[in-house]
Write a structure and sequence with these properties.
heterodimer, A: alpha/beta, Rossmann fold, Beta Polymerase, domain 2, 5-stranded mixed sheet, 4-stranded parallel sheet, 10 helices, B: mainly alpha, Cytochrome-c3 Hydrogenase, chain B, 2 domains, 3-stranded antiparallel sheet, 19 helices, 48% helix, 11% strand
Chain lengths: 399, 425
């Protein structure tokens, strides 16, 4: 017992300079994380080095967004790490979701693992990450996470008199038309002689009855509309013409007309003159029974995109063996087929004077809203808190 | 390497139970597949989701001995729903969303999206803005190729290569800071032009930077690119023939490494690429080393493009005339150099005409496709389809693993520069 007390400062000192972050690049902030250990910033001089095995590490840098699928992995890894372990959440996404806050597939990090320090930024600069490593080191030393720079507190109430009336938040500038007409496969007159020639001399004879209409929609863009039953034959005919790969499989949801447009954007690598030509093989399927024949026998490159479209829209590609299973999405995703138009998203809104409009989550803003009716300024509320913790922090470090 | 051939199939006397963790951890393969693999002479190895690469995905490998028979991808660990969120944000607010998936390559992604909006809204882009965009796009290409080279070095255990690549990247980030104010997420290219003008001294800095890069690339080549270890790890692994590359729809440098001469900048030139002189690097081998070398050569071509662009850049406004006309006449000279304080007037109400537009862009890792559907009345997109290069190379990546050994997986993975956030969006 006494020996451990005697050893404690040495143990702290040792832990402080052997912070080994696990190599868990969860999202795009990993780019700046990689820069933190590059020759320019060299965080290794602080005694930290990314390592790939969870058992030998004691720090997680959560680099950005944690999706539902990643959350489970994060928890596993955190549980495997040896004690004492620390967590740095990097970037706005790791704090509250950042610009992806209203996504169907994103969770805040603080719900999964306890966070010791938050690095600010989108993405945070390597300097910010290094600062967070210093904060964790201070936490090891003194038991609390504290920045090495103490921010100045300024009493804003002397400058700004809080307005007595409640300011309404301005309306969001979004203008969304309900039930619009969606123009897909619309002809456009363009200056593209090769295209018109190709459509009339090659595409029309090759497709014949299979296509409902063949139109030039833009320079280098052709739209071939066909019926779902003839989709496979039309694809076969296009393949024979030299269109050998799929660049995109797209679904457009038009709920008010009860249909999905399914588009295969195909092009050619093998024929030089067809390289710039992009053909949209389009078909309409009813929204209540969206079934399309899969074209992976003809174009294997469409496979993963068909799976993705099943994930996001629920369009069933008959013949693709992956149908009915999730590919991109986590099985626990709260919504099914999230890209359908009838799946709602929490809308963005303006914050004015810390008042949320009715759509907002009720928990967070409760305090300032109560403080409002008293003439007490709402700006003073957050100020008093850091000041208190600051003085407390000073007391403990000196004492 | 045919899988499941009859004579090695061993029927076990007892029923093989699938471990419970498999079910609990959402292994995305059917139970029967696991059982079949267990009963035969083969076994399954899980690579990831936590691995030393960049971003996360899981690959389920089916092995016979240590040869890979089958590879099943499990992406989606960084799927953030960009396509859905884009349907709720203004056209200008979509920019930060679409550049987050590929944070090193944000200039190319901004460019692709901006071009889609411009086509839909029928906006012209002044020449100076086009040149600035090209300079940024090529800087971004160099930065991404260096990033991938660094990650490849980490994969094959060559940390010196990582240090060199990331050291050079920092210089490019400095150029980004001087041009746009941000290190990685630029949001600088906007529909109709760019946000503000570039000063001549900054252009001089970028020119100096190309000299520095060229000099340093020579050193890096002898240290990392032509290092015998690199060559031995990468040569003749992960080979994709021209036919396979076409069949599986590869894109970008990975397609060109298999001998297909396809580059969107040449096939369907955009911005000012047709006015500049440069070549498409192509290789015939189709192996991991060819994929790496093609990208190293592309860095040289990008340097060539940047130098020409800096030399030829004209002096015009940096934002579209059509957008400038929305600003009061007295502010127009100022707005023609810096549109930032007028974005509320020009871009918030931006409502393109009804229609569907698909643009192709050559991002660093290959073809980037945006399909944008507008209904003509809303100031948010009706549908944004974003197909990223990493998503398109995934199939070819999985096919290239088959027939090689487990120890080759890092080399092949690194040679594709596969970036999961980009693939999952």
């Amino acid at each position: 017992m006494s020996i451990s007390k005697w050893l404690e400062p040495y143990k702290k000192w040792g832990t402080k300079f052997s912070l080994w972050p696990i190599h868990l690049v969860t999202a795009c902030c990993g780019v700046e994380m990689a820069h933190t250990w590059n020759p320019t910033y060299d965080a290794e001089r602080l005694g930290s080095l990314p390592w790939h095995a969870p058992r030998q590490t004691n720090l997680i840098l959560i680099e950005g967004t944690i999706t539902l699928k990643m959350a489970r992995v994060l928890r596993f890894i955190w549980e495997q790490m040896s004690d004492p372990k620390y967590v740095i959440a990097m970037g706005s996404c790791a704090a509250e979701g950042g610009i992806f806050w209203n996504s169907y597939h994103v969770v805040p990090v603080s719900k999964i693992v306890p966070v010791d320090a938050y690095a600010i930024g989108c993405p945070p600069t390597p300097e910010a990450v290094i600062q967070m490593i210093r904060i964790v080191q201070r936490k090891i030393e003194s038991g609390e996470a504290r920045a090495n720079v103490k921010p100045r507190t300024i009493d804003l109430t002397k400058v700004l008199t809080p307005s007595p009336t409640k300011q309404p938040a301005p309306n969001p500038p979004h203008r969304i038309t309900p039930n619009p007409h969606i123009p897909v496969c619309v002809e456009k007159k363009v200056d593209w002689a090769f295209g018109y020639d190709y459509v009339s001399k090659q595409l029309m004879p090759a497709l014949g009855e299979l296509a409902k209409k063949i139109v030039v929609t833009d320079v280098n863009r052709v739209c071939v509309e066909t019926e779902t039953s003839k989709l496979k034959d039309a694809a076969q005919a296009l393949y024979k013409l030299g269109f050998d790969h799929v660049k995109s499989v797209n679904v457009i949801d038009v709920p008010h007309e009860n249909k999905f447009y399914v588009e295969y954007w195909v092009s050619s690598y093998s024929k030089k003159e067809l390289m710039p030509v992009l053909i949209a093989l389009t078909t309409e399927v009813p929204r209540d029974n969206p079934r399309v024949p899969s074209l992976i026998d003809i174009w294997p490159s469409a496979d993963y995109m068909e799976r993705e479209m099943y994930d996001l829209f629920g369009v069933w590609f008959e013949g693709n063996p992956w149908m009915g299973k999730n590919f991109l999405l986590d099985p626990d995703t709260p919504v099914k087929f999230p890209l359908r138009k009838d799946v709602p998203v929490v809308r963005e809104f303006y914050l004015v004077d810390r008042e949320f409009p009715s759509a907002a989550p009720p928990a967070a803003p409760a305090k300032p809203a109560v403080a409002k009716p008293q003439t007490q300024s709402p700006t003073q509320q957050p100020q008093s808190k850091p000041a208190q913790t600051d003085t407390a922090g000073q007391g403990s470090s000196t004492g | 390497m045919g899988m499941g051939s009859g004579e090695r199939y061993v029927e076990l006397p007892v029923r093989m139970e699938v471990p419970e963790e498999f079910v609990r951890n959402f292994v995305p393969i059917p139970k029967e597949y696991v059982e079949e693999a267990y009963r035969s002479d083969e076994y399954l190895v899980f690579i990831g989701p936590q691995h030393p690469g960049s971003g996360h995905m899981r690959i389920i490998l089916r092995l016979r001995g240590d040869y890979i028979v089958d590879a099943i991808p499990d992406p989606g660990y960084v799927h953030r729903g960009v396509e859905k969120l884009a349907e709720t944000r203004l056209y200008i607010h979509v920019l930060p969303l679409i550049e987050r998936p590929t944070i090193q390559d944000s200039a190319n992604f901004d460019l692709g999206y901006s071009r889609a909006v411009e086509k839909l809204a029928d906006l012209d882009v002044p020449k100076r803005a086009q040149y600035i965009r090209v300079i940024l796009a090529e800087l971004s290409r160099i930065a991404t190729h260096l990033y991938d080279a660094g990650i490849l070095a980490v994969f094959i255990g060559h940390s010196t290569g990582y240090m060199w690549a990331f050291g050079l990247r920092d210089v490019i980030n400095e150029a980004f800071v001087r041009i746009t104010g941000a290190r990685t997420t630029l949001s600088y290219t906007i529909p109709g032009g760019v946000r503000w003008d570039v000063k001549p001294e900054v252009l001089n800095f970028v020119y100096e930077l190309t000299n520095y890069l060229e000099r340093k690339m020579k050193d890096m080549e002898s240290i990392f690119v032509k290092n015998p270890v690199t060559i031995h790890r990468l040569k003749e692994v992960g080979v994709l023939t021209k036919e396979e590359a076409t069949k599986y729809g590869l894109v970008g440098p990975f397609l060109r490494a298999s001998g297909v001469e396809y580059d969107v900048r040449k096939v369907e030139p955009y911005e000012v690429y047709s006015e500049l002189e440069w070549d498409i690097p192509v290789a015939d081998e189709g192996d991991a080393y060819a994929r790496f070398l093609v990208r190293v050569e592309e860095i040289r071509q990008s340097i060539k493009i940047i130098r020409q662009a800096i030399k030829n850049i004209p002096d015009t406004p940096i934002i579209s005339e059509k957008l400038l006309s929305r600003i009061p006449p007295k502010d127009r000279p100022q707005a023609a150099r810096d549109i930032r304080s007028f974005l509320t007037k020009t871009h918030v109400g931006l409502t393109p005409g009804a229609g569907e537009v698909t643009t192709l862009t050559e991002a660093s890792r290959g073809l980037l496709l945006f399909t944008l559907v507008s209904d003509g009345h809303s100031n948010v997109p009706y549908r944004l389809r974003m197909v990223t290069p990493s998503w398109l190379i995934l199939r070819g990546f999985m096919e290239s693993l088959k027939g090689y050994r487990l120890a080759d997986v890092p080399a092949i993975y690194g040679s594709f520069g596969y970036f999961p956030p980009e693939a999952d969006r």
